[in-house]
Amino acid sequence: MLLSGYKTVVVDNLDNSSDVALKRVKELAGEFGRNLSFNQVDLRDRAAIQKVFAQTKFDAVIHFAGLKAVGESVSKPLLYHDNNIVGTITLLEVMTAHGCKNLVFSSSATVYGWPKKVPCTEEFPLSAVNPYGRTKLFIEEICRDLRNSDSQWKIILLRYFNPVGAHPSGHIGEDPRGTPNNLMPFVQQVAVGRRQALTVFGKDYSTKDGTGVRDYIHVVDLADGHIAALKKLSDPKI
């Protein structure tokens, strides 16, 4: 985004991340790094979010914030509904109050549940099967209701599978705190010697060798997609 000319304000509670990544982003952006600022804020903290919006007039918001571990969502559903849904409602209310009505929401392909066939298309029925997926689906419904109630809102929902990878420089990539919840960090940690081996679970899937198959999208392609969505918000036809 910085290299595309956008002034960018990051809001993150650093629950599963580090500000080191932002420092490296600034370094990689070179002279454009000066257009990046950071606020360590939880979306559920209304007063803090209000302060961020009072300090800067925003044209649009890209909403990535949320807990995303499927297994944890099953054992801690209230935490996920509180963090993901309540946080989003707070964000939307503050955006409304400050006249910012352009949103790109990072949803998930989990809203399709267990599709009857693959690849999925946008028209597939929605039927999330775990608390994490349901929070994404509920937020989508909230966004649709908001758009139906106020035509000034422009909202793009992006549903994608399993982002993986790193910046070509290798200076920024996925590096979660504690035990990873996704496959690729395990692979990377084995490659650099932080773990001894990679454990493969399951051998009775309907695949050639019985092991699981997943679809992935590279984070750089995904970043390009979000920038394209952001530009699309300026289209008067949506």
CATH architecture annotation of the largest domain? 3-Layer(aba) Sandwich
Structural category is alpha/beta
Q: Give, in order, the helices and strands.
A: EHEHEHHEHEEHEH
Counted beta strands: 7
Arithmetic mean pLDDT: 92
Please give the alpha-carbon distance between the first and last residues. Answer: 22 Å
CATH-assigned homologous superfamily of the largest domain? NAD(P)-binding Rossmann-like Domain
- Helix percentage range: 25-40%
Return Rg in Å.
19 Å
**Strand arrangement across the biggest beta sheet:** 3-4-5
Largest sheet: 3 strands, parallel
Tally of individual helices: 7
Q: What characteristic shape results from the CA principal axes?
A: globular
Q: How many structural domains are formed by the residues?
A: 2
Pfam families: Epimerase
GO cellular component, one term: cytosol
EC number: 5.1.3.2
Cofactor: NAD(+)
Structural key phrases:
UDP-galactose 4-epimerase, domain 1; Rossmann fold; 7 helices; galactose metabolism; 11% strand; 2 domains
Structure write-up:
- The chain has 238 residues and is an alpha/beta fold.
- The protein has 2 domains: 41-161 and 216-234, Rossmann fold, CATH 3.40.50; 167-214, UDP-galactose 4-epimerase, domain 1 (Alpha-Beta Complex).
- Helices cover 38% and strands 11% of the residues.
- The protein is built from 7 helices and 7 strands; from the N terminus they run E-H-E-H-E-H-H-E-H-E-E-H-E-H.
- The protein has helices at 19-29, 46-55, 70-75, 77-97, 131-149, 183-191, 219-232, and strands spanning 8-12, 36-40, 61-63, 102-106, 154-158, 163-164, 217-218.
- The strands form 3 sheets. It has a 3-stranded parallel β-sheet with strand order 3-4-5, sandwiched between helices. Strands 1-2 form a two-stranded parallel ribbon. The protein has a two-stranded parallel ribbon with strand order 6-7.
- Helix 2 (46-55) runs parallel beside helix 4 (77-97) and helix 4 runs parallel beside helix 5 (131-149).
- It is globular, with a radius of gyration of 19 Å.
- The two termini are 22 Å apart.
- 16% of the residues are buried.
- One of its GO terms (molecular function) is UDP-glucose 4-epimerase activity.
- Pathway: Carbohydrate metabolism; galactose metabolism.
- Belongs to the NAD(P)-dependent epimerase/dehydratase family.
- Its cofactor is NAD(+).
- One of its GO terms (cellular component) is cytosol.
